[in-house]
Amino acid sequence: MKRHAPARACAAALLASLVLAGCGGGGTSTTDTSLATNTDASWNWNLPVNFATPAVPADNPMSEEKFQLGRRLFYDTRLSGNGTQACASCHFQNLAFTDGKAVSTGSTGQLTARGAMPIANSAYHPTLTWANPTLTSLEKQMEVPLYGTNPVELGINDGNKAAVLQRFQADSDYVGRFARAFPGEAAPLNFTNVIKAIATFERGMLSGDSRYDRYQKGQATLSAAEERGRTLFFGEKAECFHCHGSFNFNDQLRHAGSREVETPFHNTGLYNIDGKGAYPSPNRGVFEITGKAEDMGAFRAQSLRNVAVTAPYMHDGSLASLEEVLDFYAAGGRNLTTGPHAGDGRANPYKSDLISRIDLNAQEKADLIAFLKTLTDESLLTSSRFANPFQ
Q1: Of all helices (H) and strands (E), which one includes residue 261?
Q2: C-alpha dihedral (101, 106, 110, 114), degrees to nearest 10
Q3: With CB atoms 3.0 to 4.6 Å apart as the test, which of 1, 169, 283, 324 could cross-link to 319 if both were Cys?
């Protein structure tokens, strides 16, 4: 999983609300009636102020035992075909569960096409990857790094699946943990429950204790520059809020009270390599799934929570800093004049109509960056609750 930057690529959102705005090339889905606030007596969401209760699949209720089991599995390198890599190998806590790379490296050395996405608050995401509208649950998404072959990430396949599972079956601590996390099952240590446990850990990883969150509660103050940046962010001049205006600072949002959920994806003018709108293959956004021309270059707007520690930016890590990101959006897209991806993204025919030049001076850009840095949740980056249990 990975990151995006302030965009104005969609229609108006309700500021800091629980209602998701409908924006640019996306769709609408109705919340599955099987989604509920399923928890057992051991579970406490400890929700940040202004956060809605997450939706939980009926067949995978939250429990503390399952969360803790999922945390161990997330950090365990035995959960890969060759025993060298864990989920945490591409999701570092100190980087808000990204990895600081443009694209990630799988257990066999193969590179992914896109960067590792942040995991915190994924409980609220109705779609779970950069550009696949069909992956709509953490459980289903977990199958991609586990079993995917193009690229190989954890590298579990039919040839090694039994051996991987045997590593855990031979560990008496894991045998007990699976039995407690999935009581009443005759043989709870299986891949279905591995996936459910990791999804529970991810679903329970909430981030809402940034300095800006404390400011909203009257427990912290913003500097003059940060306050100016906040005004710009939520105002019509910079218009960042149009795609980043929810409590999660993005524009795809689902929670237990949702009815209809918008799932927009956006072409922000990052590429235009043939003058007809093309993005570099095989990394062409939702187009890779649908084959529809209008989906070329359409990617999900990422949450801006913890954005200051998740460089580099965009789906392919092609923008190195927040300064570059703001320059990109202020220019209304990117004009690459050399190299294999040369082309004027500002003229991409599939770019959102609302991506256009924004007149921001150097002080205004600095103020916006100052505000974005207030969205860093230090507790997420350091909390033992989300840390490696083997250290």
Answers
A1: strand 260-263
A2: -40
A3: 324
One-letter identity of residue 31: T
CB atoms within 10 A of CB 183: 11
Among candidate residues 34, 45, 32, 38, the one with its CA nearest the CA of residue 61: 38
How many CB atoms neighbour CB 276 within 10 A?
12
State the Cα angle at 35 between 262 and 285, rounded to 5°.
35
Phi and psi, residue 165, nearest 5°:
-65, -35
Cα-to-chain-centroid distance, residue 144: 15
30, 249, 267, 15: which is closest to 130 by C-alpha? 267
Task: List the beta bridge partners of residue 149.
Answer: 152
Alpha helices (H) in 182-236, listed in sequence order: 191-203, 211-216, 224-233
Residue spans of alpha helices (H) in the chain = 64-75, 138-147, 161-169, 172-181, 191-203, 211-216, 224-233, 241-244, 287-290, 322-330, 362-373, 378-382
Give the integer Cα–Cα distance in Å for 101 and 109: 14
Quick check: 242 and 23 in contact, CB under 8 A?
A: yes
Contact (Cβ atoms closer than 8 angstroms) between residue 374 and residue 209: no
Strands (E), the chain: 27-30, 35-36, 56-57, 260-263, 335-336, 343-344
